[in-house]
Specification:
8 helices; alpha+beta
Amino acid sequence: MLKVITDEAAIKRCQSQFVRSFKPVTAATIPVKLGHPGASEKAKVAWSDSLGIWSFSRKIAGSRYWNGFGIGRPEGGAAIAITCEINFPLCGVDRRTGGAFAQDRAGRLYVVHRGKLGGGRKGIGKSLFENHYRGVWEVMDDGGEETPVAVIGILQSPRFARQIAEFVRKIARIKETAATRSAQAELTFGELRLREELIGARYREQERETGAECDHGLIVRDLAETLKQAGLRAGNDGNQDLLVMDRAGRIRAVFQVRTETTLSDLHAGATQLLLNGLSLPDNPLLILILPRPPEVALRDKLKRLNIDILIYEWREERALFPGLAPLLPTIAS
């Protein structure tokens, strides 16, 4: 279980590290009019080309650390709306504030969110978050209460800025699609794309290594980009982590990502692939994505189940898939 950080000095250090994490990926500082419900203010937001988001942070004396985010490069001097906020109390526990810093037993620091959403529109709030957000969930000791929270990322991770950007994009999509038809409807080739808001679990389904699980969405995104560079069309539908479809609408490959190689992780990944595969025609390839090869006996069992293993590795903040090339001719055929 995570435990919320309440010490004023510790929160201040975490907030400073939170802001510093975006400096290496900041491409420009842009003057704008930053919108709030019923008001706006002049601000200079930090824009990141690589992440596709802007950010703005400041301390509100006597209240909180305010961190606003939005998508798309703003025009200088333009009025822009905030996609989401990840705010932290100055000290103690403030359950009215959406964000919090938390720590696990190993001393790792996390940024979590209680699901409090703003937006000034009917239907935008905590219930929308709880009903639609998919990601990493954990129970947090919230000053004596147990609170389910969404784990956004690990503060010390080299991929932390990407984890924040993924969260911002998910919130944007949740707000956009809340009143539309289910995104899990049957897909066609033309509709096939990566839906970040469908990556991850609705709630915490089993005991997992929370730190590694924070990278799950990044791995799916990097795999989708790698497949796109190979000339393949990849997307997800809320059931499979990723699938490849040909122009005739046939699913050629299904991918399932696991960030650990424990026996329970391998069983869960294989079971999900097999169950999903039963409902799919055309016998697609079933591919389990892992951080390291499992033991030989387990590899042999997976092979007998017609499940291929693909190992990912990290190069700086990006996931690479060196074993993908031999599978591409079969996927593309």
